[in-house]
Specification:
Blueprint: H1 3-24, E1 30-31, E2 35-36, E3 44-46, E4 52-59, E5 62-69, E6 76-80, E7 92-97, E8 100-105, E9 111-113, E10 122-127, E11 133-137, E12 142-145, E13 153-155, E14 158-160, E15 165-171, E16 174-184, E17 190-194, E18 205-206, E19 217-220, E20 225-230, E21 234-240, E22 249-257, E23 263-271, E24 276-283, E25 299-302, E26 310-313, E27 317-319, E28 329-331, H2 337-340, E29 348-354, E30 356-357, E31 364-367, H3 370-379, E32 385-389, E33 392-396, E34 403-405, E35 412-418, H4 437-482, H5 489-492, H6 499-505, E36 512-516, E37 519-522, H7 533-539, H8 543-546, H9 554-569, H10 586-596, H11 610-623, H12 634-642, H13 656-659
Parallel strand pairs: 25-34
Antiparallel strand pairs: 1-10, 2-7, 3-4, 4-5, 5-6, 7-8, 8-9, 10-11, 11-12, 13-22, 14-19, 15-16, 16-17, 17-18, 19-20, 20-21, 22-23, 23-24, 25-26, 27-28, 29-35, 30-34, 31-33, 32-33, 32-35, 36-37
Length: about 650
């Protein structure tokens, strides 16, 4: 215990030295009016040591703006500006102005900033040897720096404070946001998660420093010591560099949440002859398969070590994309016949898989024998897979996630797959069916005539039905609009807004709630409405917006699901003029009808294909799950709608977040 204060003082001293070095390195200052362009001679600004560069770098078919290490075998990007925004091209210009760094595309007057808002009184900028790009005001004080907005990396002298996260990149050549994030919790715990979820139980690595205080932060000092520190915690060292400083050798350390979800400490060695090398000093996990979500839905991770992991499909599944096996798998058969069959065991068989485990919750768990577990899943239409451990049989709906195989796992999985080569009774040909060619031609003409006549009659009847149906819908809408005694209906009637109305409601688009894949959502108040509930009704915001939770691309999937159910049912998501109160909320009513086997209520007297209707309803219910991790990717949703991918029975959209 006596050595702890001494160690803390030493580390604090190192931190102060790092900070002083980072802030006082003002050489090679960048003056106002300086600019960069991919199409000009000057594409980047270098640090005094020429180890770091800030500017445009090639990214796919265009360019991105960021910071990278120079003289590396492969480009090592340590920071990227607005990493999920569209790429820029050779006609882009980045200029240092009094408002900060302005990005201009061609001759367009509209400009953007690589920081959140314009910065007044910017006087100069500098690319420091620490890897930090800073903007100074007229008093030579830093008023913006890249160290305060990390992407997937922290460098020597940089901190990661409470509520700040590192987000992995898609790949080493694509610095857009990937599928994992490292989060500094309010209680002092540093934890890694898949981006598709934020449930504490889904963390696949943590520092184990829970309840250590609200002032804990992660620091990497310039000597290569990666540690957590706070008043109550003291100093908790995660890793340290094994290479001391040498003459004529510059060592730069970085800690990166890599594309595979593993947090690693690196050291880059720059020799005096401009040669360089890189060493992995520490990894948060030794086994790649321990990373939750490394392999996608309905697939499992197999292998030992950081570079030997392989994603494989469950029995009866195929890869969504064979060129990218990390995207997961889909069922290669349809399960719709199970509920219509009197004996599902005739349609399916069970394939066992040993030494496998996954991270989802079962809908049923009972004590039984191993053989009985297999038979129970085979006869249960809800069961896509069962897991037998000890003497317990747990049954699961599909899809499954966070699966891994290891010889150390004592469990047997049973997967339900369709029986192949089911014998079909041959069709007997009797002599009396073979007649003269003329008779066969007459029969064929007669069949064709009857068929074409029936089709024409059906088309005529359908046209008449469509006209009456349209008039009926118009009449209902007109009645709804003219009825002044409906009270709250006006609150839920959709209407369009002009740009000026939206600009006034959002106070000039002042407060940004967040970004999705299809645009930006702003906070605003519509006259005559209460708070932002009216806005939420129009834009179908996912539950995580109101919970102030981590926002991912799954928020847009929720909106898609609501719209899909509206299209299927030909009504709004909230409808007051309905026969019963159970029908007011569309999502709840659809789920109740689905579970009761009464989907015909959703389409009234329309003549529809109920197999297609059931598939669309199930896809819609999966998309509106409160737990973002349960919502499918848009690519998978399309495959399910097309019938290419099997659609499992969805859980209750409201209860999903509580259960998982």
């Amino acid at each position: 215990m006596a050595s702890m204060p001494v160690l803390l003082l030493v580390l604090v001293f190192l931190l102060s030295v790092d900070y002083a070095n980072a802030q006082t390195n003002h050489s090679n200052n960048i003056s106002l009016g300086s600019s960069l362009s991919p199409d000009a001679n000057l594409t980047s600004w270098l640090s005094p040591s020429r180890h770091f560069a800030f500017g445009f770098y090639p990214h796919g078919d265009g360019f991105a703006i960021g910071i990278w290490l120079i003289n590396q075998t492969e480009k090592t990007v340590t920071w990227t500006a607005n990493r999920d925004d569209p790429l820029v091209f050779s006609n882009a210009t980045l200029e240092l102005t009094r408002d900060g760094l302005q990005l201009r595309i061609g001759a367009v007057k509209n400009i953007a900033y690589i920081h959140d808002t314009p910065l007044n009184e910017t006087a100069s900028a500098a690319m420091l040897d620490s890897g930090n790009f800073v903007l100074y005001n007229s008093s030579s004080v830093v008023h913006w720096q890249t160290f305060e907005q990390p992407t997937d990396t922290i460098l020597g002298g940089q901190n990661l404070s409470t509520f700040v996260s590192l987000v992995s990149s898609v790949s080493t050549s694509n610095q857009s946001s990937g599928q994992f994030f490292l989060y500094m919790h309010y209680d002092g715990n540093l934890a890694a998660y898949p981006r598709s979820t934020y449930a504490p139980s889904d963390s696949f690595w943590s520092s184990g420093t829970n309840n250590s205080g609200t002032d804990v932060m992660l620091t990497l000092n310039r000597s290569g010591v990666l540690f957590l520190h706070g008043d109550r915690l003291g100093v908790h060292i995660l890793a340290r560099s094994h290479y001391p400083d040498k003459k004529n050798v510059t060592i730069i350390h970085r800690a990166t949440l890599d594309t595979d979800g593993i947090f690693r400490l690196y050291s880059h060695h720059f020799e005096s002859d401009n040669s360089s090398s890189m060493v992995v000093e520490w990894s948060s996990l030794a086994n790649q398969c321990e990373v939750g979500g490394f392999c996608g839905w309905s697939s499992y991770c197999s292998g030992v070590g950081a570079n030997k992991a392989e994603c494989k499909c469950y029995p009866g599944f195929e890869f969504v994309d064979t060129s990218n096996k990390f995207l997961g798998c889909y069922r290669n058969f349809n399960n719709n016949d199970c509920r219509r069959s009197k004996d599902p065991a005739m349609l399916y068989r069970i394939v066992p898989l040993e030494n496998i485990l996954w991270g989802d919750y079962p809908y049923s768990s009972e004590q039984m024998k191993k053989e009985d577990c297999k038979i129970s899943c085979l006869k249960d239409c809800n069961c896509g897979a069962a897991l037998y451990t000890g003497d317990s049989c747990a049954k699961y709906r599909l899809p499954l996630r966070y699966s891994r195989a290891s010889k150390s796992i004592s469990a047997t999985a049973f997967f339900k797959v369709i029986r192949k080569n089911i014998p079909t009774p041959p069709i007997a040909l009797h002599p009396e069916t073979v007649g003269p060619k003329i008779e066969r031609k007459r029969g064929l003409i007669l069949v064709l005539g009857i068929t074409l006549g029936s089709i024409s009659c059906l088309c005529f009847m359908f046209a008449i039905y469509t006209i009456f149906r349209y008039k009926h819908q118009v009449y209902r809408y007109r009645t709804l609009s003219e009825n002044t005694n409906l009270g709250l209906i006006e609150e839920f009637t959709l209407r369009s807004f002009s740009y000026n109305e939206l600009e006034q409601a959002t106070d000039g688009f002042k407060e940004e709630l967040g970004k999705g894949t299809s645009g930006v959502v702003y906070q605003g108040t519509i006259p005559g409405a209460v708070g932002d509930e009216r806005t939420a009704g129009y834009f179908y915001l996912a539950p995580e917006w109101k919970l102030n939770a981590f926002i991912s691309i799954k928020a847009d999937i929720y909106s898609f699901g609501i719209v899909l159910l509206e299209i299927v049912c030909c009504r709004r998501s909230i409808e007051v003029n309905v026969p019963t109160t159970d029908e007011i909320i569309l999502s709840s009513w659809v789920y109740d009808c689905f579970m009761a086997g009464e989907l015909e209520k959703l389409v009234e007297d329309e003549n529809v294909d109920f197999v297609t209707l059931e598939r669309m309803v199930k896809v819609g219910l999966w998309c509106i799950q409160e737990d973002p991790a349960l919502r499918p990717l848009m690519k998978n949703a399309i495959l399910m709608l097309e019938g290419t991918m099997d659609v499992p029975v969805p859980p209750s959209p409201v209860r999903s977040l509580v259960v998982s």
